[in-house]
Write a structure and sequence with these properties.
The protein is of the alpha/beta class. Helices cover about 55% and strands about 10% of the residues.
Length: about 525
């Protein structure tokens, strides 16, 4: 996702990374990398020029502090980190300010009209919105199948309605404007308080389509008109959006297919060209894959710094707080077993694909080579191996031996070596987490996940108090509770490190010999 956009910013940061100071020539070269990637990502030409000019103006001649005294040392940042911070702020400014969410009426019926070209994902997004207002806001939505032209459009909405437990209104042989008007009457009669109109689209803008949509808007006076935009079509999306806005004066955008091979140009261009806010991002086919738009999060992901706040929000949706706290206690005591491990795997699977979760981690773009995709089948293989263990083996992993490895391998369709590798990785992780719990004092600070939730509400706009320029260091600088950004570092004693590794290897060999 957004690889085309990200590569220019990554190249600019690497170009400036080792510079003691940023010269005008250095900025010019870095900005050239950014300009090329923005144009390749199909960002509108005028928006590119405006963005590059703003970054250059702020970066040239700026005097910055690269070292700040703290109580217990110094916090340092390079000139390149400050350049990244400037890019981050300008990206946020380009896509913001934030105006996410639906305008829900306190009394009466809230109406939402979905418009856009055919194939942009209107019907699926209508289902996602229905799920969101039902589960998050406690509303009683009704879907209206007003696309009578696309084959199977009505049937698709009926299937979505059955999955969600949401009624779908449709009457055959009726024009879409009249159908929407009758749907409103029906909603009042049966006590539905949110009505979502799934209107028709075309492959391109035409006059009959626009007149029909204008008539639907005139008859129903919708509270929200959302333009559903395919993020993969670049500048065409911006031009189409401008025409829809001129005719319908919509209230905001929903960008879809950002989880695919999206160049991402629409995300940067569309707000600047039309002046209308981005409301939601569609990040997958699942009905729960609709995120409220946060410009800080998307800007951080474009810059390769992940989106910790978004990851925490996903985590909260799928994790039981008390259970997670107990797991954290066991983890940091080095006492967790394969049952706990399996719970963690299933939590990750609920949050999305490995690729989606990984992309929200800081520096994910630098840890994987360009174009490399994480394989979710690896989690399936791990789960299969754990499910092939007995309940005693899952609770007490140390009882595993050669004969048990062979049985587990047969049961999970894997080689004995693959099962052994899983066991070795598990033991190493358990030991490492136990050491971290002892040394860091984290164990004494494990509390309610509510504390983690507050992280997301403390950053500019909503989240964690992390300085994006410090994140560019790749060291943890600027993150509360982490010491990675302080330059007072003890020199590494390589002999001690080698000796410790040898001891660990010998200990593993003895343990294997004992199990045999």
């Amino acid at each position: 996702m957004l690889e085309t956009l990200s590569k220019g910013f990554r190249a600019a940061r690497l170009r400036l990374q080792n510079a003691a100071e940023i010269t005008e020539d250095g900025i010019r070269d870095a900005v050239r990398d950014i300009r090329v990637s923005l144009l390749e990502a199909d960002v509108e030409y005028g928006v590119v020029n405006q963005f590059v000019a703003a970054v250059t103006e702020k970066a040239v001649g700026e005097v910055v502090k690269t070292k700040v005294r703290k109580k217990d040392g110094f916090l340092a940042a390079t000139p390149a980190d400050h350049f990244v911070r400037i890019c981050h702020d300008e990206l946020v400014s380009l896509m913001g300010p934030v105006d996410a969410g639906v305008d829900l009426s306190r009394k009466g019926v809230t109406t939402i009209m979905m418009v856009g070209l055919q194939g942009s994902g209107k019907t699926t997004t209508a289902g996602k919105l229905a799920r969101m207002v039902k589960s998050k806001h406690g509303k009683k939505p009704m879907l209206v199948a007003a696309d009578i032209y696309r084959p199977a459009a009505v049937q698709q909405l009926l299937v979505l309605g059955r999955k969600l437990g949401v009624p779908v209104f449709h009457l055959p042989d009726m024009s879409p404007p009249e159908l929407c008007r009758k749907a409103l009457d029906q909603a009042h009669a049966v006590g539905r308080d949110v009505v979502i109109f799934d209107t028709a689209g075309r492959l391109a803008i035409d006059e009959p389509l626009m007149k029909e949509l204008e008539e639907i808007k005139r008859l129903t006076q919708p509270s929200n008109v959302f333009f559903v935009c395919d993020a993969m079509i670049g500048q065409d999306a911006v031009r189409t959006a401008a025409e829809f806005d001129r005719r319908l004066d919509f209230t905001g955008f929903i960008l879809t297919k950002l989880d695919g091979d999206a160049r991402g140009g629409a995300a940067l261009s569309i707000k600047q060209v039309t002046g209308k806010p981005i409301k939601y991002l569609g990040m997958g086919e699942g009905l729960d894959k609709l995120e409220e738009f946060r410009p800080e999060g998307l800007a951080s992901r474009i810059l390769g710094m992940g989106d910790i706040v978004g990851l925490m929000q996903d985590f909260q949706q799928h994790v039981d707080e008390e259970k997670a706290e107990r797991s954290a206690q066991k983890l940091l005591k080095g006492q967790f077993n394969f049952d706990d491990f399996l719970d963690q795997i299933r939590t990750i699977q609920k949050m999305g694909t490995l690729q989606e979760v990984f992309e929200k981690l800081p520096f994910a773009g630098e840890m994987l080579p360009p174009g490399v995709q994480l394989d979710d089948r690896e989690l399936v293989r791990v789960e299969a191996a754990i499910n092939s263990m007995t309940s005693d083996e899952r609770r007490n992993p140390d009882v595993l031996n050669e004969s048990r490895f062979r049985r587990i391998a047969r049961g999970s369709g894997q080689t004995v070596q693959q099962v052994k590798d899983l066991y070795d990785r598990f033991r190493m992780a358990r030991k490492m987490m136990g050491e971290i719990g002892k040394v860091s004092g984290l164990l004494s600070r494990v509390g309610s996940l509510g504390k983690l939730a507050k992280m997301g509400r403390q950053l500019k706009g909503s989240g964690l108090d992390i300085d994006p320029s410090a994140l560019a260091l790749g060291s943890g600088a600027g993150i509360p509770g982490m010491d990675g950004g302080e330059r007072k570092v003890k020199p590494l004693d390589r002999k001690k490190v080698k000796a410790k590794r040898k001891q660990e290897r010998d200990a593993r060999k003895k343990a294997r010999a004992k199990n045999k």
